[in-house]
Amino acid sequence: MFNLAPLMLEKVGIIVIVAFLLSKMRSFRQVIQNEHTIKEKMMLILLFGAFGIISNYTGIEVQHQTIARPDWTTEMHNESALANTRVMGIVIGGLLGGPAVGIGAGLLAGIHRYTLGGFTAIACSLSTILAGIAAGFFGKRRKQKGKPINAAFAVIMGMALEAVQMMIILVAAKPFNDAWELVQLIGLPMIFGNGLGTLLFIFIIQIIKRDEERARVNQTNLAFLIADQTLPFFRQGLNEQSCRGISEIMLKLTNADAVSITDNHQVLAHVGAASDHHIPRRKPETGLTKKVLEEGLISIARSREEISCFHPQCSLQAAIVLPLKVKNETFGTLKMYYTKPEKLDKVQQELAEGLANLFSTQLELVEAERQAKLLKDAEIKALHAQIHPHFLFNSLNTISALCRTDANKARKLLLELSSFFRGNLQGARQMLIPLEKEIANVKAYLSLVQTRFPNKFTIDFQIETGLEKVAIPPFTLQPLVENAIHYGFPRSKSEGKITITIFTKDDQMQIIVADNGKGIPEEQLAVLGTQVFDSKKGNGTAIYNITERLKGIYNGQASLNLTSKINQGTAITISLPLERKGGYEVNVESLYSG
Q: Which pairs with CB-CB distance under 8 Å and at least 24 residues apart come from 330-333?
């Protein structure tokens, strides 16, 4: 027994060395994965069946108590048996590949063992097939429970199934005395030797899987790094400058020898090898690119002929061309070229596919962002359009009333209204106007209203010096003053008072429009500004419009707050960021142009 143990370790070492060498082959590493197709299962059957056959050939021949090496060219003696590591390979195959692989590899190795002869041929063949079945069944069951095939489980299975082989030899091999003698000699060395071999083999498999996981993590990190660095260029849209920046980043961070981006009509950028004839602004010349643009599917070429470049001396020998899509419509391609076909391996292919998906997503987000901005601009203009008629109709009513009593004054007010609207039509093309212009609008409105109701209210302006040029949204003050006049003190016998206070506080401009009118009921105050409020005087619509414009223009940096008490008055406070609009500097002087 003790003389056999070192020899068994030697045989275990042979199998482990073969497994280690195979682990350096990409094809072997790709097959040793969790999910297997029928083709991959066939490869696993052949692979682990081959391990069993190698173990048969490198086994130790035992005849009674004599240990000898078998002669591969001659059959074994009828009274001989083999001490080997056959079960180790079959068990690992069954654990990794499931019952199909276990049975297939067991049959290959078991039938081969039977052809070698010896008085344990039948027993060893049956035990090999049984080991494959059992390993496949228990491995599949463990995976179904969500548990991994770890080293401890594999070693227990290997040693247990080797022990089962010893029992089958005792039952099936004849004569029994020879079988008992054999088991006493080879039992413990084979059980522990196969257990050790299974442990080392499973460690190799785990290293392969860890390396693959690490490669995927690195690949994912690289893809996100590229996506992060290229995002500013995508925000500019697909043009020659942005696409060249994207291509240069990809060329630097990937193994590609050239990177190119096209739209549906022309090459936008090409950096790297073959730049002498792959020139921007030209139509896509390669047949591969045309095919991708037409079909919208990924295409891979591993020769210059497959790329179909028109230039006879083109150095590009392999390429992967991927469609760039927005809403499932192909509008361009991403191309990664290689000067050597072997550089376009599976890792590069997966990286390219991941980048194409990320780029397509980025382009969709940029397009969605652009559409959202256009929609927001349209909403703001629509809100402006709602305010213009509101002011116009009230002004015309006032002028209409004056036509009968004071035609000259009505004419003067009509000219003032005309000048006022001419300025506002120009300002409607802008999101912001200077504060002094908004104050002028309010005073123009007041001159019209006070002509009609000369003793109804007084107004007091308290404006901090130096704020005249600060930009604010047009039609911010006038609707609030209008609300105070028509809603704050309707049919009031006493003279109302409106105070407009404007000052700075904590890098914000505070605008307060307060009146001493009848106030707003608490239940109405709760919904003002959040929705259109049903009011005969239009109070809720004006405040809602102002609130929505503040949201759209300042991206949450501005606010509107209301406080009110019944029969005491109402105060509306607007806070605006000084000289900033949504985080961007405002050029106040440009507001005077046009």
A: 330/264, 330/292, 330/293, 330/296, 331/238, 331/263, 331/264, 332/238, 332/261, 332/262, 332/263, 332/264, 332/268, 332/293, 333/260, 333/261, 333/262, 333/284, 333/289, 333/292, 333/293
* Token pair recorded at residue 25: 């082959």
Annotated domain spans of the chain:
4-215, 235-344, 371-592
Residues forming a β-bridge with 63: 66, 80
Side-chain half-sphere exposure of 463, counting CA atoms within 13 A: 14
Q: Select from 282, 260, 264 the least CA-distant residue to 272.
A: 260
Chain center to CA of 490: 58
Q: What is the pLDDT of residues 299-337, one digit of tens each?
A: 888 888 888 888 888 899 999 988 888 777 888 888 899
Q: Which of 584, 594, 389, 581 is nearest to 472 (CA)?
A: 581
Residue 500's pLDDT is: 95
Q: 513 in helix, strand or coil?
A: strand
Confidence of residue 587 (pLDDT cuts 50, 70, 90): very low
Residue 109 and residue 89 in contact, taking contact as beta carbons nearer than 8 Å: yes
- Lowest-pLDDT range, 172-176, 233-237, 478-482, 486-490? 486-490
CATH topology of domain 371-592: Heat Shock Protein 90 (3.30.565)
* CA angle at 235 for the pair 230 and 236, rounded to the nearest 5°: 100
Report which of 198, 156, 212, 199 is spatially closest to residue 51, judged by C-alpha positions.
Answer: 198
525 — pLDDT class (breaks 50, 70, 90):
confident
Asked whether the predicted pLDDT for residue 591 surpasses 50, the reply is: no
Query: Could you give the 3-state DSSP secondary structure of residue 526?
Result: coil
pLDDT band at 586, cuts 50/70/90? very low
Residues 43 and 49: their CA atoms lie apart, in Å, by 10
Domain 235-344 has CATH 3.30.450.40: yes
Instruction: Please state the φ and ψ torsions of residue 81, each to the nearest 5 degrees.
Output: -145, 170
- pLDDT(541) > 90: no
CATH value of 4-215 in 2.60.40, 1.10.287, 1.10.1760, 1.10.1740: 1.10.1760
- Report DSSP letters for 494-506, one per residue: SPEEEEEEEEEET
Q: What is the pLDDT of residues 11-22, one digit of tens each?
A: 777 777 877 777
